[in-house]
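Objective 1.3, modelling of assemblies. Example input:
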Amino acid sequence: MANLIEDLKLDEFKEEVLKAYPKKVARKRAKSIVVNDPDAIPVIQANVRTIPGIITQRGCTYAGCKGVVLGPTRDIVNLTHGPIGCGFYSWLTRRNQTRPATADAPNYMTYCFSTDMQDSNIVFGGEEKLKQAIREAHELFHPKGIAIFSTCPVGLIGDDVHRVARHMKEEFPDCNIFGFSCEGYRGVSQSAGHHIANNGLYKNLIGRNDNYKRKYKYAVNVLGEYNIGGDAFVIEELFDKIGVDLIATMSGNSTLEQFESAHTADFSLVMCHRSINYVAEMLETSFGIPWAKANFIGAEATAKTLRKVGEYFGDQELIDRIEKVIEEEMVPVKAAAEKARKKTEGKTAMLFVGGSRAHHYQELFSELGMETLTAGYEFGHRDDYEGRRVIPTIQVDADSRNIEEITVHPDPTRFKPRKTEEELKQLKEAFDIEFNEYKGLMHDMKKGTLAIDDLSHYEMEKLIEMYKPDIFCAGVKEKYVVQKMGIPLKQLHNYDSGGPYAGFAGAANFYRDIEMISCSTIFKQMKAPWEREEYVEAEYVFN
Amino acid sequence: MNTTETNTIKKPKMGSPVGVGGYVSTRNSCKLCAPLGASLVFKGIEGCVPLLHGSQGCATYIRRYMISHFKEPVDIASSNFSEESTIYGGSRNFITGIDNIIKQYKPTVIGIASTCLSETIGEDIPGHIRHYQEANEGNGKTLPTFIHASTPSYAGSHAEGFHNTVLATIKTLAEYEKAGSHVTILPGMVSPADLRYLKELLSDFGIKFTLFPDYSETLDNEYTAEYQLIPTGGTPIHEIQRIGNSKAVIEFGSMFNKTALRSKDKGTIQTAGEWLESTHYIKNHQMPLPIGIAATDRFIAALKDITGLELPEYHRKERGRLVDSYVDGHKYIFGKKALLYGEIDLVEALAEWCREIGIEPYYIKSTDFETLRAEANNIKPDFLLGNSKGYYIARERGIPLVRVGFPIHDRVGANRMHHIGYRGTQELFDRVVNTLLEYKQEHSPIGFKYM
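Predicted structure (tokens):
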């Protein structure tokens, strides 16, 4: 396999692709395309502005805040303050799966709440309309919470969503009303919106409920899991099986109360490091809850994560239960993998998606015997590639300064370290549990593979043309471009309406889907007989 | 009472729960934003790459919606405003954006639409274009043609964005020369299949024509051995230029860009056809989208009127088969109630067709989904006729949804759906009748398989 990567000469890509760019652009892009060496991880440029006119996968700050982090919470009225487009486009997407406890329990995710600003609101200000919108939502639904999301014009015309939130909270003391300054232009990508959302969760929700009633002895949070394709449902079921309380999933299938009680957990597991590491840190600083990187994508990764939970609590009964669950769950998974591998072994994949998915899904591909040639994030930062060790060296630019940094102090009454320094050290030594650490994507990618940040459309086309992977993973925006090039694309933000892919059951689903894609015969039909080379050759011989 | 208004539901007097002003935030909008409409028009120009001047999220969201509907690559560039460009202006981003589009795509046209952001800070896009041209022309470079449309989303929906961009493009490019013999068709927001149908019909007629916009290929492309950076197809620039000397214009629609709430424009808004008539003295035949026999007959009559040519046999027979199928199917649909929603141009044309075949249409102009949902309780429709976004109402009521218009992101083949002409009506009619038959069959305690 190592030979495969060498043979492909992935290092030639950079020179080839940069030719088409104007000089300045080429210089800038060169820093975001690096050949990996896990033993001496090179520096990659990430989280810098996309160059105008270069078509990007990235979305905006609003999308990260409203669409990603707060979107999957069902009992908060998520109100978009702005003209209609932004609210409409983020209305009930495939991320927004949720399971209310009862048929009449609140679920506002099916609504597209928007102030639908008009010309006169832009000219004369939209705060009054926003207040009216909040009154209306409150009167109709009596929600426990209303969150206000700012779109581009809001900041420009000077509407103060935070002032409106305070004002309305006085009017409706029974409702938690808070605003986000997540105007689209504020950051480099969705990532700025995640950060703004994390700050808001901490300031307005976390720590408000001390009365969480546990079902089991131990309790954890899963942070950065957004329930795409029902992944969070699978993870919830797993925790129930091993007998551990999952207090808060942030934010797949979540409720306001889950955020409010997250500080009562014993341990935080971080799935998508990029979008939620701020909350993990705040929970630790403020309440003493340690966090560790986790991964429920891939059967082996899931087993490893569950074992980590057992080792963390150090309870033999729990450890036994976990082993039993793993043993049972692995049976059908192994069978599915074995079957799929007949078709998938030795094939190649490229992954360009998200802020963690391009890393996590390499697990599943390796379980299928497939090699990941290149990977990159849409909105990752350097630490997501190179590991958290580089955080002190990341330059703070104007775009990062834009985002409020909130100072977090230990809670005067509720800060209680769940583990002593000594215990954490022992856990690290005995079980290799790395607390407050993420080693990044490049650590796990082979020597000679490529890491590319914020892959442009053009670079994607070049990658496919030069290396013809067997499968390309990205989102719907890339899907039809890639498929027009004769390569199947697997959507990892929507799963092509498939999934779930998390946990054991999810892994088996994924194997089946990739096996199916690998066997697909349609790509053979793409060229007409008269366009095929063999046809021409055959004709030549017969003549 | 105007016939097209017969079954229009009067805007319900529901009164806001908070008093004056009506509902604000809780109604589930039934419209998208203006730059989406603009992008659609720009995709219908040959060799064109659209650029949205504003925050990158606009291009990303709009691409996602168009791609999910058409299931085709849709490249839309952005000038990627940062906080800095928001404060000091976006001219530098504009220049870099244009430079990079030219270098990567070598387009013949760049269509630039404004967004809420650039409109709010008052970006002078025509000024940016002029400066760019002044700085780059003359040194041997051939620059693409630039077209600019003003499309803030707080002043109209995607439908306004569409029609305003048709108007802006024609205003920018139309020549003013001796009238020719060709006819200009401005079809409005129809599907790629509809556009192909129009081209076939007009060619069969033997009419010289210009169809604008034409995204029949760019948004419903074949598989090509070589990937096309800019897909082939689209109305060529020279054809848009000669719209200015066409013999006549036919434009489909009833509301066009006239629902905009922008106070300064009230009463002064013109459609592209009206502008051509008032400035270029070209006879404008404005008519609803040709859905149904009567509406299509009106269109065919206009074509005959303008050119003196006769409807070709093949198409006359399509009409004949449609009439025949009306007879075959009428008993299964007569008296059924349909709840319609979507762009007003489409809804009003569909309503007229419903009346033609004996279905009672119900719709509210410029409404939202929650009002529709509430009205559905009174009307008790037998089915919904509209885009994917109304699915939740159909699901809640346990009735079928016949998908038409935009966006259709929960089915494949939206670009191949016919809506207009005898052929489009035939397809719609068959779909509606079969949907109602299937509903009846599935709800029958016996499960007949013969009718």
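Residues 1-6, 10-21 of chain B have pLDDT under 50 and may be disordered.
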